[in-house]
Write a structure and sequence with these properties.
Blueprint: E1 6-10, H1 18-29, E2 35-40, H2 46-58, H3 64-82, H4 86-113, H5 118-147, E3 153-155, E4 163-167, E5 170-173, H6 175-187, E6 192-197, E7 200-203, E8 208-210, H7 216-227, E9 231-236, E10 257-259, H8 260-268, H9 279-285, E11 289-293, E12 302-305, E13 316-329, H10 339-349, E14 356-359, E15 365-371, H11 375-385, H12 387-391, E16 397-410, H13 420-430, E17 437-440, E18 446-452, H14 456-466, E19 472-479, H15 483-492, H16 496-503, E20 505-513, E21 517-520, H17 530-537, E22 539-540, H18 543-550, E23 557-562, H19 567-570, H20 573-578, E24 582-585, H21 589-592, H22 595-607, E25 612-613, H23 624-633, E26 638-644, H24 647-655, H25 662-671, H26 680-683, H27 686-698, E27 709-710, H28 723-729, H29 734-746, E28 749-758, E29 763-771, E30 783-790, E31 798-803, H30 807-824
Parallel strand pairs: 1-2, 1-9, 2-6, 3-6, 4-7, 9-11, 10-12, 19-20, 19-23, 23-24, 24-25, 27-29
Antiparallel strand pairs: 4-5, 7-8, 11-12, 13-15, 13-16, 14-15, 16-18, 17-18, 20-21, 21-22, 26-28, 26-30, 28-29, 30-31
Helix pairs in contact: 1-5, 2-3, 2-4, 2-5, 3-4, 4-5, 7-9, 8-9, 10-11, 13-14, 15-30, 24-25
Bound molecules: adenosine-5'-diphosphate, aspartic acid and magnesium ion (MG).
Residues 11, 214, 217 line the site of magnesium ion.
Length: 829
């Protein structure tokens, strides 16, 4: 007994030019088996060009002649390049010329009437498939003759084989009639190549028709079912059905296997790679469908069949673009049976296809989505259908929201699997995307949401990463590549690939800004050479542009990392939150500024669901803020917080042992880079007071900087002079400091500059004399130490201690905040 036929379908994307035709014939030639059916679409873009001709004819546009000329030149060029034998070439061109004459005649008639009847429209569109398949068939013949293979090539017009009847849901196949025609045709053919145009068919009255745009996939599976083929392979320009449209989600991956229903659902919700109706003929005979790449034929591709690998609950994410959402609302609909029937009946009668329906359980409103171009028609149909109710105010409004998209997550495995919907919606929320309507099919194979079109790509990418179908991508902008910022980039450089591979996390530093310049990159900046790039590719700083660039629409999350100490930079936070951007900062200004501003920052963050992380603004990389939050959130009562919060002052008083004057220690420390350029910034105690304010506010204490009693170690006389004058005059005050030191020593104490805060909001910062056995007395160089006395840790307070200054540990604190942000946004790890 003969083996079964194989059906191959080539889309327009595989047939753009002469080179493509050669690729396809070679591919067919290399197939195993001597029974191959080839279904082909029109050359890429040809159907669109024909459609445009209809449009131009309806408008009686003069451009028609030019448009026809372009079509003619394109086809003749392909024939000339491919077909060597003069008679063959001539016969193809003669047929083409006859078609062009017919085409012109029909276009003339359309121009005269000003409107193309469906039938004329279909006939015009059919030419694309006729031309491409005739050429493909001739080319196959030529190849076979050259190789002297004893195989036949036959071309047959699909309109002689496939008969359909158009119904409300599209074309229905008249299987009996089509089957009869197939049997009689295939009676005489036992093997070889059979080339059949896709997309076109006859209707029940014997007239020419089409299966709708993208319909060649459907043709292939109809033919597969009619000949009971071994399989149907759809050859296209991607390596299979992918977890999302690869042009919109570059990280999309091929789905190895899908069930028919999964494929149908993905196709219905926008995965253009396969026409949604393709699956049903295949299901009838249980024929597997393969999706493969013409340009990379050895790639495995996708298999669509009865079963699929259930390794993932979600298979893919798609969007339907250009839809309008219509909301019908009114108390008069509550409990009134048949409202939905009337509504959808009216829409059906008007030929409007409803893509998605969502009804509130209160029955107070019904919301549905229709293709964008049908929006105004749907609006008037609904208003007409409920004319009386609208007049009587039983229905208050019919509202149309144009420019929407539907995003759908699809997978058989989500049925009965809790948490999928919540993950979907929290992922969208984390990406700052507003959901306008929600629907879940009763099969539980799909959850869809209507969102604004302008955020569709962002939503697609966020959801794709949210279900771990690709990495969680975060667009990062760094402001202030000074000591801390530069160290952060250095720390991130070797980690990015590890984070991607092991934690599904893709940090893309796409911008670096100094106070005057900025460096932007579309994808990401190579962190191993950012300095030289900043030298060579910089542009003048434009903060608005910088922020817009980081907050790119196509990336789901954006974070700005503030490594400056600038007030001016921190004043932008609210504006950034308003744009849905997250902020990670080592800068203390916003958290310790005026309460009004602090409140506004917190409010802005909350209102926009953004994250604001600033662990490194207190104790550098030490987990001080996080510890405080954990204690607080787990219900512990914070009684007091005390500590040494300045690495610089810790160092100065660790080194100060009476052997060297205090002023010399300050100067040496300044020369070694341990102090701010102006050491008074450290000695004044304001920096410590700011940290205390930040901690106080974490506890809900409403303190201003002025509420803290701060001992300023800068002598009064030296507060308003220049740095140099300050340094020169400081020795005049050594006496005072030596005296304090001696006094402390006489009592077996040491001097430590501390900050303290209690639950009543009493806060002070001062130089203290502490017993030599006090835990604050035994710290290393620039260590910070913080003691939390709490309800639970009362006798033996909780202590956090470690290096609290320096770019390395501060940058590490910022980096941990970035990772914490990624986890909040849904990254695993
Ligand atoms: P053909 O001309 O071969 O019929 P189409 O252009 O109709 O090809 O379909 C292939 C295209 O479908 C791909 O190039 C891709 O842009 C798009 N596409 C959309 N969603 C998906 C998806 N989930 N998987 C693969 N391709 C997709
Ligand atoms: N050529 C038709 C279209 O562009 C059919 C197809 O390609 O599947 O819609
Ligand atoms: Mg297609």
């Amino acid at each position: 007994m003969k083996n079964k036929w194989h059906v191959h379908k080539f889309g327009g994307s595989s047939l753009s030019d002469a080179e493509c035709f050669l690729r396809v014939t070679n591919l067919l030639h290399s197939q195993d088996g001597d029974r191959q059916i080839v279904v082909a679409s029109a050359m890429g873009g040809m159907t669109n060009a024909l459609e445009a001709l209809v449009d131009s004819a309806e408008k009686n546009d003069k451009s028609i002649t030019k448009e026809v000329g372009l079509i003619r030149d394109r086809y003749i060029a392909a024939v000339a390049q491919l077909i060597k034998q003069p008679e063959k070439k001539q016969s193809l061109l003669d047929l083409f010329q006859t078609d062009l004459t017919d085409l012109q005649d029909i276009l003339n008639a359309v121009s005269l009437v000003g409107n193309a009847a469906k039938r004329s429209h279909d006939i015009i569109l059919s030419f694309g498939e006729l031309w491409s398949t005739r050429l493909l068939s001739s080319l196959l013949e030529q190849m076979i003759m050259k190789d002297d293979l004893n195989r036949s090539v036959r071309w047959i017009d699909a309109r002689e084989l496939i008969v359909v009847k158009h119904g409300e849901l599209g074309p229905n196949i008249l299987w009996d009639e089509s089957s009869k025609r197939f049997s009689s045709f295939f009676k005489e053919i036992s093997d070889g190549f059979v080339v059949i145009p896709g997309f076109i068919a006859s209707d029940d009255q014997g007239l020419h028709t089409t299966l709708g745009r993208n319909g060649s996939d459907f043709s292939a599976s109809i033919i597969g079912a009619l000949v009971d083929s071994e399989d149907v392979t759809i050859w296209t320009d991607v390596s299979g059905v992918m977890s999302a449209d690869p042009y919109r989600v570059p990280e999309a991956a091929v789905i190895g296997s899908l069930t028919y229903s999964e494929a149908m659902e993905l196709a219905y919700f926008g995965a253009k790679v396969i026409h949604p109706q393709t699956m049903s003929p295949a299901v009838m005979n249980n024929i597997p469908i393969y999706i493969k790449n013409t340009f990379q034929p050895t790639d495995l591709g996708s298999k669509i069949s009865e079963f699929s690998n259930p390794d993932r609950s979600i298979k893919g994410i798609t969007t339907v673009e250009d839809v309008a959402l219509i909301n019908v609302e009114g108390a008069g609909m509550i409990g009134v049976p048949g409202t939905a029937d009337r509504l959808f009946g009216a829409l059906r009668d008007a030929g409007i296809s409803v893509i998605l329906i969502s009804q509130a359980s209160s029955e107070h409103s019904i919301c549905f989505a229709v293709p964008g171009f049908m929006a105004s028609k749907a609006d008037s149909i609904v208003k007409k259908a409920f004319n009386i109710e609208l007049k009587q105010n039983q229905i208050q409004k019919v509202e149309v929201r144009p420019e929407c998209s539907i995003i759908a997550v699809v997978g058989d495995g989500m049925a009965g699997m809790p948490g999928i919907a919540s993950r979907f919606f929290s992922t969208l929320a984390n990406a700052g995307i507003n959901v306008r309507a929600i629907a879940q099919g009763s099969s539980e194979r799909n959850i869809s949401a209507v969102i604004d079109s302008n955020v569709a790509t962002r939503a697609l990418r966020a959801a794709h990463a949210g279900f771990y179908l690709s990495t969680e991508t975060i667009s990062v902008g760094l402001i202030g590549p000074g000591n801390v910022g530069a160290t952060l980039l250095e720390q991130m450089a070797p980690q990015t690939s590890n984070l991607k591979a092991n934690f599904n996390l893709d940090f893309r530093v796409r911008g670096i800004a100094t106070s005057t310049k900025m460096l932007l990159a579309e994808r990401y900046i190579d962190l191993n050479s950012w300095q030289s790039l900043l030298e060579s590719d910089w542009q003048e700083l434009d903060m608005d542009l910088f922020v817009r660039h980081i907050n790119a629409d196509h990336l789901p999350h954006a974070v700005l990392v503030d490594c400056t100490a600038s007030d001016e930079v921190s004043r932008n936070y609210i504006d950034w939150f308003d744009q849905g951007i997250h902020v990670v900062t080592a800068n203390k200004k916003a958290q310790s500024g005026s309460l009004d501003y602090y409140d506004a920052v917190k409010h802005g963050r909350k209102a926009n669901n953004s994250h604001f992380l600033y662990e490194s603004s207190v104790g550098a990389g030490l987990p001080i803020i996080q510890t405080l939050r954990d204690l607080n959130e787990t219900g512990d009562e914070i009684i007091s917080i005390e500590g040494i919060f300045s690495g610089t002052l810790a160092y100065l008083f660790n080194v100060f042992d009476g052997s060297k004057p205090f002023s010399t220690i300050v100067k040496d420390a300044r020369d070694a880079g341990y102090t701010e350029p102006d050491p008074r910034d450290d000695l004044s105690g304001v920096d410590v007071a700011r940290k205390l304010i930040i901690l106080a506010r974490e506890l809900g204490l409403r303190l201003e900087l002025s509420d803290i009693h701060v001992e300023n170690l800068v002598p009064d006389e030296l507060r308003d002079v220049s740095i140099q004058e300050f340094l020169d005059a400081l020795p005049n005050f050594d006496f005072e400091m030596s005296e304090r030191y001696q006094k402390a020593r006489d009592q077996s104490c040491v001097l430590r500059y501390t900050g303290s805060l209690d639950k009543k909001g009493r806060a002070q910062v001062k130089l203290q004399s502490l017993p030599a056995d006090h835990s604050f007395a035994h710290i290393n160089l620039t260590d910070n130490i913080v003691r939390f006395a709490t309800g639970r840790y009362s006798d033996n307070p909780l202590v956090v201690q470690g290096p609290g200054a320096g770019p390395g540990v501060t940058a590490a604190g910022v980096f941990s905040d970035l990772l914490r942000l990624a986890r909040y946004l849904g990254a695993r790890g």
